[in-house]
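Known limitations

Structure tokens in this collection are predictions and should be treated as such. Users comparing against experimental data should check residue numbering before alignment. To illustrate the layout, the record for FABP6 protein is reproduced below. The input appears on top and the generated tokens appear beneath it.
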Amino acid sequence: PKGTMAFAGKYEFEGDENYDAFVQKIGVPSDKVEMGRNCKIVTEVVQNGNDFTWTQHFPGGRTTTNSFTVGKEADMETMGGKKFKATVKMEDGKLVADFPNYRHTAEIAGGKLVEISTSSGVVYKRTSKKIA
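Generated tokens:
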């Protein structure tokens, strides 16, 4: 059934589209833009029913972790390091979160983690392959 998609696992960055246009649109500082370009981010997802812990490991040891329960408000952190509150929803097997200035979706498609962020018509897509 829909809504029980297995997100759990470790995924390594494989490729992205529209990175520069998107980070400019959402106002990521230029030093962070360079750091994030073609960055071999490893995304680790722990899923227990509707409870998720979503950790991004950046080269050099920096990590960002967002823990949330589908349908409940949670404290989140953006790509650019801003903190805010959001409620993650499940729609057609995709996790959907409305960030302050963009909408983010995540789904498992063809065994890969596909994340799409949209801001004012600019669509950023990041694909990661499963490594564990």
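For this record: The CA atoms of residues 104 and 116 lie 6 Å apart. The helical segments are 19-26, 30-36. Please report discrepancies through the issue tracker.
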